[in-house]
Amino acid sequence: MKTQNLLPLVTVIIPTKNAGKTLTLCLQSLKKQTYEKLEIIVADGGSTDNTISICKKFNVKILTVESHIERTTKKNLAAASAKGEYVYFIDADFELQSHVIEECVNLCAKNYDAIIVPEKVYGYNSFWSRCRQLEVLCYNGDDLVESPRFIKKHVFMDVKGFDEQLIFGEENDLCYRIRNSGYRVGRTKSWLYHHEGPVSSVILRKIYYGNTAFKYIKKQRFDALTRFQPIRLGWIHNRKLLSRYPSYAIGLFVLKFIQYLAAFLGLLIKLIR
Questions:
Q1: Is residue 73 in a domain?
Q2: Residues 273, 83: Cα–Cα separation, whole Å
């Protein structure tokens, strides 16, 4: 690999709000990257826990925004101030394998414009968390679910960044616009690990996303249909994997049904208000 100071700068953008429980692991994984030429920007929306003190400990840049601002706006604001040739959007509960960023840069050098980094879910050591882990494994390699997070900055700016009217599905919307603009999307062999927390927190997020889903459904009707269909293509493609873990597979279907109910509840709350 080239001498580090001759390499392009990568800006890593992390939107946060009270992310102290997982942020240390996230930043530690960035400090352990084999690719060292990084600018790290934490876009924080009024954290009241130890998020800011953790950022200061790791000497990363802090972009402070108002507490009501959603993550799409946080990410766009951070990208506008980014100095890197590439922008890499991650969440505070992500932990990266040590060579993820190096692999992304190498793929972009081979004429890819945006890169998908597949993820594995780590939750609490419970039956339902294992069901959730199996679900995410089934989606690896599924273009209808996965979206690029590592993007050439000029590409991100060319497609106008994240749609700030969206909260649900904003990453998939960005992916569609990148692909439809003729840019090439690649995929790493390395992984990132998503520390989701308890399954109950996932369900609560589904209620919130359901409450904000109307705008996405109007904009991306085809993707909305694929997201809300009762049987996912990833399950069919990975039926052998599911058959090896029948109890978790059954739990996965039950969990997905509960998630659909939670999203529908969110939609219903939106209609009633």
A1: yes
A2: 42
In sequence order, what E strands does the chain have?
A: 10-16, 38-44, 61-64, 86-89, 94-96, 114-116, 119-122, 150-152, 185-187, 192-195
Contacts of 24 (CB under 8 A, 6+ apart): 54
Record the pTM: 0.87
Q: 190-202 as b/e, with b when 16 or more CB fall inside 10 Å?
A: eebbbbbbebeeb
Which domain, by its residues, includes 147? 4-197
Length of the chain, in residues: 273
Query: 53 lies in a domain?
Result: yes
* First-to-last C-alpha distance (Å) of the chain: 56
Tens-place pLDDT, residues 180-194: 999 999 999 999 999
Beta-bridge partner residues of 185: 114
Question: Which pLDDT score is estimated for 187?
Answer: 95
Specify if 152 maps to a domain: yes
Q: Is 126 a domain residue?
A: yes
pLDDT at 4 over 70: no
pLDDT on residue 220: 62
